[in-house]
Amino acid sequence: MEGCFMILEDLVEEAPALEGVVLYSIFMLPESRSSRTQYLHRFLSAGVTIHGAVENFDLLTETGLLELEALWKLRQLSDRAGPLAGVSRELRDLIG
Amino acid sequence: MNAHPLGFADAGDNTACRAFLRDGFVIAAAEDRSSLDRIRSHIASAVRHHLDAGEDDDDAALLNQVHRYVDKSGLNELRLAVINGLRAQDWFRPTYFSVARGLIEKIVGNELVMQRGAGLSVQLPGDQSSLLPIHTDVWDGDSPFEVVLWVPMVNCFATKSMYILPLDVDRDYQSRVADFREQGSEALFEAVEKDAQFLKIDYGSVLLFSQTLMHGNRVNEEETTRWSINCRFKSVMSPYADKRLGEFFEPISVRPATHIGLAYEMPGGFGD
């Protein structure tokens, strides 16, 4: 469910027993920066690494948070601009 | 074109920029030959390992003559073995970028994203199963701000190479492309064929092109096999289309001022 982080909350509670968490995408983390970094700090301080499968992104230490946040902000900016005009199905069909 | 189409700050050597503006593509010498050789050497080693053949051939001979060791039934397996092997190397993407870094920075900018997974084309002589019909990547959901760095691993020419429509004729045909929606891409190719340029690009050179241009390939009617790698680049901040930041593109150069800007948050506590 979009905007619901019950499973993530459960995982944080289980953190002492985990080595790492693999997310389908790092962009599944909370939109709110403070909430997102709070989760990530809790995982990292418990020695749990975070991995984004689609982005092949590994968050292994606190310093990696800067890179993650930069990527997150860039993605937000690109989303804010909105996608370019879509391609018509007929045009896609032309190239098979 | 006005007197300063590239802006007043680009008064230096902008030959490549002017060629790109005129044609939509540019061919240039590889900037780091040792990087290019490293990539080709890795490919050749992977081919030898996969096919258990070609030990006595040098890298160029092996790739050009690989059809002696594999036919189209084994081609896709070979292609996947080679490209997956390359993609698994940490050095591959920085090395590929270094082959044309200066050119890309001139044409695109110096804050860049790079496609995460480069593509590999292998086209055996006479093989009809590896064809790419005429298209632009934009018609399939790519951003028009992207460019493709196409790097041959062997000398490419005539039908062993790709063809492309130079910018001026391309735009003329694209304005009429809807006329072909019932007839399909082959009819479109037949219409543009006389203006299509099969690019001669020797090993040691690179092609950088706007994938808004129509391009594709035909059956390789030459006697040797084509090997080429392609990978997309774009400016970090230019508009995206279906291929998004994160899953498809990865930032490879973000400057300090941008980092500070990205991290900046307006002071809170104000009513509006």
Record keyword descriptors for this entry.
heterodimer, A: 96 residues, mainly alpha, Rossmann fold, 4 helices, 3 strands, 11% strand, B: 272 residues, alpha+beta, Jelly Rolls, seven-stranded antiparallel beta sheet, three-stranded antiparallel beta sheet, 9 helices, 10 strands, 32% helix
Number of strands of chain A: 3
What's the total count of β strands of chain B?
10
CATH class of chain A reads: Alpha Beta
- Of all protein chain pairs, which has the greatest interface, and how many residues does each chain bring to it? A-B, 27 and 32 residues
Number of helices of chain A: 4
Shape verdict of chain B: globular
Distance between the termini of chain A: 35 Å
Please, could you describe this protein's structure?
- The complex is a heterodimer of chains A (96) and B (272).
- Chain A is mainly alpha-helical and 96 residues long.
- Chain A has a single domain (6-82), classed as 3-Layer(aba) Sandwich (Rossmann fold), CATH 3.40.50.
- Helices cover 47% and strands 11% of the residues of chain A.
- Chain A is built from 4 helices and 3 strands; from the N terminus they run αβαββαα.
- Chain A has helices spanning 6-13, 33-45, 64-81, 89-94, and strands at residues 20-23, 49-52, 57-59.
- In chain A, strands 1-2-3 form a 3-stranded mixed beta sheet.
- In chain A, β1 (20-23), α2 and β2 form a beta-alpha-beta unit.
- The longest helix of chain A has 18 residues, at 64-81.
- Chain A is elongated and about 55 Å long.
- With 272 residues, chain B is of the alpha+beta class.
- Chain B has one domain (14-263): q2cbj1_9rhob like domain (Jelly Rolls), CATH 2.60.120.
- Chain B is 32% helix and 17% strand.
